[in-house]
Amino acid sequence: MPSLHLEGVSKHFGGLKAVDDITMVVPPGEITGLIGPNGAGKSTVVNMISGVLSLTHGDIRLDGTSIATDRSDIVARRGVSRTFQNIRLLPEATVLENVLIGFHRREHAGVVANLLGLPAALREDRAFRERAHSLLDRFGLDEYADTEAGNLAYGHQRRVEMARAIASEPDIVLLDEPVAGMNDVESDELATIFRELANSGMGLLLIEHNVGFVTRLCKQVYVLDSGRMIASGDPHEVTRDPKVVAAYIGTSKH
Ligand SMILES: Nc1ncnc2c1ncn2[C@@H]1O[C@H](COP(=O)(O)OP(=O)(O)O)[C@@H](O)[C@H]1O
Ligand SMILES: [Mg+2]
Q1: Neighbour tally for 187: CB within 10 Å
Q2: Fewest CB within a 10 Å sphere: which of 10, 45, 162, 217?
Q3: Where is the signal peptide (predicted)?
Q4: Which residues keep their CB under 5 angstroms from ion ligand 2?
Q5: Best substitution site from 11, 16, 38, 176 to test ligand 1's pocket, by max atoms within 8 Å of Cβ?
Q6: Is 205 in the pocket of ligand 1 (CB under 6 A)?
Q7: What's the gap in Å between 43 CA and the centre of ligand 2?
Q8: What is the pLDDT of residues 173-200, one digit of tens each?
């Protein structure tokens, strides 16, 4: 299983250094955390890795091969999958169909990337349907298989997005605030799934606001503040680091 390396990565939007010269590793078989206050640059990191945004400087490598200039469909085909901070499902398609789309990286991902719809071949393929049902089962969603995704509660929609993201059996999965808006029971259920995925060899990058959640799950955590990496390492130590505490207190004031 490959690991993902970011080396000296920056993203500037005009004069704003949204991400400023960061270096980090997402190894296989582990959950790696990326935390930081709102506006720190976390989603921008995910957008650069997944090929949604170009890099201003630096390189991103998957087991030594640069993916820094690859389009998002190519990055997906290379085995890097993601969820979005703002859920992106096809609201009028069923839950099952939304997950079926996730198998598509093995076919021609560009078509689906444009959300033109689900190819008939996939829709009718029994093996894919069975796998989709077992994924839904794992996420406690199978009873909603035929429900329009847009009609599900928010927490359930997040889980559909995750089921879709791992359907292609990616090596690396980037989760942008996957438990935001969920209660403790729901987020604990997901924590169990995240651990299982890591144990199966997948490398997870978990972006999260809830420091306790990250501390419990992650082996290594990185802290971004105003685009800069202000700390990294063991989550228990990092979250006690005065720089990190100050970054969080600084933002809770407004
Ligand atoms: N497409 C964009 N164009 C201009 N500025 C952006 C864009 N995307 C993000 N930003 C800015 O970059 C900074 C980091 O944003 P973001 O990565 O979304 O932070 P986070 O996910 O940590 O809350 C913010 O100041 C945000 O306004
Ligand atoms: Mg964000």
Answers
A1: 18
A2: 10
A3: none
A4: 42-43, 85
A5: 16
A6: no
A7: 4
A8: 999 999 988 888 889 989 999 999 999 9
Contact 34, 207 (CB under 8 A): yes
pLDDT of res. 183: 87
pLDDT at residue 127, rounded to an integer: 80
- Sheet of 228-233, strand order: 80-82, 172-176, 203-207, 31-35, 220-225, 228-233
Residue 126 CA: distances (Å) to CA of 118, 142, 160, 223, 252: 15, 16, 20, 44, 50
User: What is the pLDDT at residue 212?
Assistant: 86
Residues of the chain under the 50 pLDDT cut: 107-116, 252-254
CATH 3.40.309.10 fits 1-79+170-254, yes or no: no
Question: Can you give the pLDDT at residue 102?
Answer: 85
The per-residue pLDDT for 210 is 81
Bridge partners of 21, per DSSP, are: none
DSSP letter string, 63-101: TTEE-TT--HHHHHHTTEEE--SS----TTSBHHHHHHH
